Amino acid sequence: GAFLYSHLQQKVRSAEALAQKYKQQQEALSAQLQVVYEHRSRLERSLQKERGEHKKTKEDFLVYKLEAQEALNKEKQDSMNRYGALSSQHKILKNQHEDVKKQLLDLQLQHNSLKLEHRKTLETHSQKYAQLQQEKDSEVTNLQDTVFKLREESKLLRKAHQEVHSQLLSAQ
Questions:
Q1: Helix spans in the chain (H)
Q2: Opening angle at CA 115, ends 110 and 118, nearest 5
Q3: How many angstroms separate the CA atoms of 7 and 13, rounded?
Q4: Which whole-number Å values give the CA distances from 54 to 29, 59, 66, in the listed order?
Q5: Helix, strand or coil for residue 172?
Q6: CA–CA separation, 169 and 162 (whole Å)
Q7: pLDDT value at residue 138
Q8: Angle at 11 between CA 25 and CA 5, to 5 degrees
Q9: Euclidean distance between CA atoms 10 and 56, whole angstroms
Q10: Where does the record place a coiled coil (predicted)?
């Protein structure tokens, strides 16, 4: 009986030691589990916070994206309007340029025609001038001959007059 009692007591002590060991393990596991729960709770709060921030960031981004898209569309519309205005202005200037080119061609043709006409007129005038100069020289020469002849005739008439006057004086 004592042996059985001693054996049972040893088994009880061994079971109590085992129970104590399991209790310590349970307490350690419970403490670890508490740490894990707290960590999980912190992570969940952090995750909720991150989700909130992510949601806010996503909303901000969508607002920014919408504003950027509107600004881009407005800028695109403005650019298209400016392009249209510049394009029509370019067409107007191109047409004006073509008109000016035509006017320049017409003026060049007119200039060349006038230049040719001027040259012809200048040649005609030069010929007429030379002819008139020649006629004038010829007329001057003729007039000089006539003057010379008239002087000679005047001398002869004076001589004749002198002789007639002398004869009249002699006759008186």
A1: 2-171
A2: 120
A3: 10
A4: 35, 8, 18
A5: coil
A6: 10
A7: 97
A8: 155
A9: 67
A10: 5-60, 90-142
Residue 112 is classified by DSSP as H
* pLDDT for the residue numbered 172: 82
Place of tokens 């994206």: 65
Task: Tell me the one-letter amino acid at 24.
Answer: Q
Query: Nearest-CA neighbor of 106 among 114, 116, 96?
Result: 114
Distances (CA, A) of 107 to 4, 93, 94, 157: 143, 20, 20, 71
Alpha-carbon span 113 to 101, nearest angstrom: 18
pTM of the model: 0.43
From the list 69, 40, 45, 37, the residue with the least C-alpha distance to 53 is 45
CA distance 80 to 122: 61
Distance of alpha carbon 76 from alpha carbon 119, whole angstroms: 62
3-state SS assignment for residue 125: helix
* Calpha distance 52→45 (Å, rounded): 10
And the tokens for 37?
Answer: 């729960």
For 7-54, the DSSP string reads: HHHHHHHHHHHHHHHHHHHHHHHHHHHHHHHHHHHHHHHHHHHHHHHH
* pLDDT averages per 10-residue partition of the chain, 172 residues: 92 96 96 96 96 96 97 97 97 98 98 98 97 97 97 96 93 85
Entry field: residues in the chain: 172
